[in-house]
């Protein structure tokens, strides 16, 4: 399945499973927004994805999914950076 041109939001994206999901989606052509409560972990995943792709395919944002305003900020970040969201995990 090709995800070329799609944008995904991954919560918990700085963790082992979330990072693996982000890598898989990027490998299938998607751009991803990596959200995680631990900002540095989210940044590390996004940086790795961008370095491997040699282009901007990922961005990150510190996100506490238990806070409504953080969830809104995560999706706004996706809209601002990549123009919207097609997939949310």
UniProtKB/TrEMBL annotation:
GO terms for molecular function: oxidoreductase activity. Signal peptide: none annotated. It comes from Lichtheimia corymbifera JMRC:FSU:9682. This is Uncharacterized protein. Keywords: Oxidoreductase. InterPro entries: NAD(P)-bd_dom_sf (IPR036291), SDR_fam (IPR002347). It holds the Pfam family adh_short. Coiled coil: none annotated. Belongs to the short-chain dehydrogenases/reductases (SDR) family.
